[in-house]
Design goal:
Pdz3 Domain, disordered C terminus, 2 domains
């Protein structure tokens, strides 16, 4: 069959042939870069007189609290509180990590943690679900991308720091947490009770569909996502399968590691820019090029997206679209186009600092606008999906 015919078959499968869905329902991630030591950053700017004056004010307030406050408060509590207050004046994707939170974040990017299995962000001072993780308690309970979490337990999330929300959602296996959810279509916010579980992320699943079409689901971009993808593609490309086209499912993929997204794109794109970042200082302006591997045959590709497709997943969908390597099908994506660099700080603490915005090869930013599909499908009744993996 010629290429045009397989493009038609791919779209036919996406629109009408595939039965049942890997349901829309599939956690804090962004286009994260690697961990850095902040000392070189700190040395770039000498403290101004006004900064020194403000630090003297801070020191005075800290001393007053330590010496004269009615209760004796731990120094760490006061310092961490001050840092969190400073960070809260910045964008919602910048965060400070206590030692326990830093450990938790590292476990998430390695593919294993304890909780209910959702990725969150903030919009209009509310905590919003980017996407539930495939097979997680949140997905099973019916939590959806775009849900607004009004309360975690009895605590309002309005103006809450993301890491505070993450800490409240995490907990011991077998314990429960209640979420008050606001959703379009609900007459009133609805209470969801979820049991925390050990979440083990297998970010890549695959199958062979009729007409020799391969199907690959990437649920997040973790440390070993690309190696898992390469194994899947190797099997799909075996002679007995002989796939002639590929459906790459990035629905409800909240993103993750930027470098993994670049590797994944490089499997399909031979050369050129995958994505580039622009920040306030020159060292933050970086171009990420295809790695020259291009291991996948030049068969047609359809990428599935929705409002739960965010960050690194948007880079992947948008870059494949910009290089005319794939057609994007679904709904407008989440619209998170910022890069967080994770810094290792003293005393086992850390910080995720927004250092740049990323741009697709065609110069477009997905920040707030998202990736616009080639074929826009607004409702699940218009869209028949694949059997759950």
């Amino acid at each position: 069959m010629d290429r045009l015919r397989y493009v038609s078959i791919l779209l036919l499968l996406v629109f009408s042939v595939l039965a049942f869905s890997a349901k829309p329902g599939a956690c804090l991630t962004a286009g994260k870069t690697g961990k850095k030591n902040p000392e070189s950053t700190a040395s770039r700017e000498k403290l101004s007189r006004s900064a020194l004056k403000n630090l003297r004010l801070f020191s005075k307030v800290y001393t007053l609290i330590k010496n004269d406050y009615i209760k004796k408060e731990p120094s760490g509590k006061l310092i961490f509180g001050a840092i969190e207050g400073m960070v809260s004046t910045l964008d919602p994707h910048t965060y400070f990590l206590t030692p326990s939170e830093f450990r938790q974040m590292r476990s998430e990017t390695s593919g294993e943690f304890t909780g209910i299995g959702i990725k969150i962000s903030t919009k209009n001072r509310h905590i919003v679900v980017i996407a539930p993780i495939d097979g997680s308690p949140a997905a099973k309970a019916g939590i959806k991308a775009g849900d607004i979490i009004e309360k975690i337990g009895d605590i309002s999330t309005y103006d809450m720091n993301i890491m505070k929300a993450v800490a409240l959602l995490h907990g011991k296996v077998g314990t429960s947490v209640n979420l008050l959810i606001e959703r379009k279509g609900f007459a009133h916010p609805k209470l969801f009770s979820l049991m925390r579980e050990k979440i083990i992320l297998k970010s890549v699943k695959y199958m062979v569909l009729p007409h020799h079409i391969g199907y690959v689901r990437i649920s997040s971009f973790q440390e070993h996502t690309n190696s898992q993808l390469l194994k899947a593609l190797k099997i799909l490309n075996l002679k007995e399968h002989g796939i002639k086209g590929l459906i790459l499912d990035l629905r409800n993929n909240p993103g993750g590691l930027l470098n993994e997204a670049v590797k994944v794109c490089s499997d399909f794109i031979k050369d050129g820019v995958i994505v580039y970042t622009k920040g306030r200082i020159k060292s933050q302006d970086v171009k990420y090029y295809a790695l020259g591997k291009h291991i996948v045959p030049n068969y047609p590709i359809v990428v599935l997206v929705n409002a739960g497709t965010a960050s690194a997943a948007e880079i992947t969908a948008g870059s494949l679209q910009a290089h005319k390597r794939a057609l994007v099908v679904g709904t407008r994506t989440f619209g998170k186009g910022s890069v967080q660099t994770v810094f290792t700080l003293p005393d086992r603490t850390g910080m995720g600092l927004t250092t740049a915005f990323y741009f697709l090869p065609n110069g477009l930013s997905v920040q707030d606008t998202g990736v616009i599909p080639n074929f826009d499908i607004h409702s699940s009744k218009d869209f028949i999906f694949v059997k759950p993996l």
